[in-house]
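Annex B. Sample input.
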Amino acid sequence: APLRGWGARGERLVAHAPYGHWKTMTFIAALRHDRVEAPWVLNGPINGEAFRLYVETQLIKTLKPGDIVVLDNLGSHKGAAVRDIVRAAGARLFFLPPYSPDLNPIEQLFAKLKHFMRRAARRSAEAVHNAIAATL
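Annex B, continued. Sample output.
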């Protein structure tokens, strides 16, 4: 946990510093030009099976024929099952070039979400879910 921070000049900084073993939480969502769709929080890291489950249970509900699903080159995005599910909905997959997060507009959403997450003093699962809900 950080031992330093910013505070008013001449006043002692008092803040909660989370400690202990870190748990990974993964946030996945779809971004349209005017809204966020299919938000999903996974308690753990993303892998091919978890991403397939997201596409199968969350994303598929929002896809329409002719939609384009833009993905980065994360290995879990490239599964054949994911490709088949998206194509069955009438949508197409488009993969961004490697190492190009600046071309992916959802990265801006994730940056804003992380900003609000850092402002939350507690890091419990409930606090994370509440911060995500407040941001969206």
